Automatic annotation (TrEMBL):
Name recorded for this polypeptide: Transketolase
Keyword annotations: Thiamine pyrophosphate
Domain Transketolase N-terminal: 17-257
Gene3D superfamilies: 3.40.50.970
UniProt keyword rRNA-binding, yes or no: no
UniProt xrefs under Pfam families: Transketolase_N
Family as reported in the entry's similarity comment: Belongs to the transketolase family.
Length: 274
């Protein structure tokens, strides 16, 4: 089921960006397996009660990858799938970045890179103070962790022992201006987070078994937050987009969309993600 959900989300990503003639397909496609796992297996959420105070929270810190979140929310039933057709249209609900006041299921408005982890920390700290059991998940991009605010937030999460925070790093190696190692080298990412007193787990971000094991391990960690460093492939599932930096913020044409959907259908027929 998760493989099919992830591929359906990928199809929606390509369709949305093609119809809008804008958007960010590459980093949305790389995150699809993680969001499919969170929304369809792990998180305690209910589309019929999106503001339930006991729900788990999700923050898409790399807010430009909104198509992956919208695809997951529509597939989960938060709003009619027909809304996806209006992606990025003036006056429509689904704009280029997630907006918490107008979109059911969106827990935090994001788009300015570097801010999502701080918001997730606030939600997690509130849960601690209110003695509630919900967990907070946040997804960051690898280019995003070049932002200083990420490391202030990393310090804060460790200081307040926010073991109810689980962060994902979508580590696809590419950002808008090129490879992360050429734009601003990240170095030993796991060692950096460990030095901030985070528990670190490194996985293949397209393997559901590894995603599952990492999330379950994070639940056992006490008195410190966890980051799951997920090695992913930008443009995952669409042959001509994979590992191509040009697809960070370009939309496919109708002809390219047809090729993308053919690729994604082939993957579903062959058994989906790893």
């Amino acid at each position: 089921m998760l493989k099919e959900k992830a591929q359906r989300i990928r199809q929606d990503i390509c369709i949305m960006t093609c119809q809008a003639k804008s958007g960010h397909p590459g980093g949305s496609l790389s995150a699809a397996d993680i969001l499919a796992y969170l929304y369809f297996q792990e998180m305690n959420v209910d589309p019929k009660n999106p503001k339930n105070p006991d729900r788990d929270r999700f923050v898409l810190s790399k807010g430009h990858a909104s198509p992956v979140l919208y695809g997951a929310l529509a597939e989960k039933g938060y709003f009619p799938r027909a809304e996806l057709e209006n992606f990025r249209k003036i006056g429509a609900m689904l704009q280029g970045h997630p907006e918490m006041k107008g979109i059911p299921g969106v827990d935090m408005s994001t788009g300015s890179l570097g801010q999502g982890l701080a918001a997730a920390n606030g939600m997690a700290l509130a849960g601690k103070l209110d003695k509630m059991d919900y967990r907070v998940f946040v997804m960051m991009g690898d280019g995003e962790i070049q932002e200083g605010m990420i490391w202030e937030s990393a310090m804060a999460a460790a200081h307040y022992k926010l073991d109810n925070v689980t962060a994902f790093l979508d580590y696809n190696g590419l950002q808008i201006d090129g490879p992360t190692e050429e734009v601003m080298a990240l170095g030993d990412v796991a060692a950096k987070w460990q030095s901030f007193n985070w528990h670190t787990i490194e996985i293949n971000g397209h393997c559901f078994e590894e995603i599952h094991a990492a999330v379950q391990e994070a639940k056992t960690i006490k008195d410190k937050p966890t980051i799951i460093i997920a090695q992913t492939l930008k443009g995952k599932g669409v042959s001509y987009m994979e590992n191509q930096v040009g697809w960070h913020g370009n939309a496919p044409s109708q002809e390219q969309l047809d090729r993308a959907l053919a690729d994604l259908c082939d993957i579903v027929d062959a058994g989906g993600a790893e």
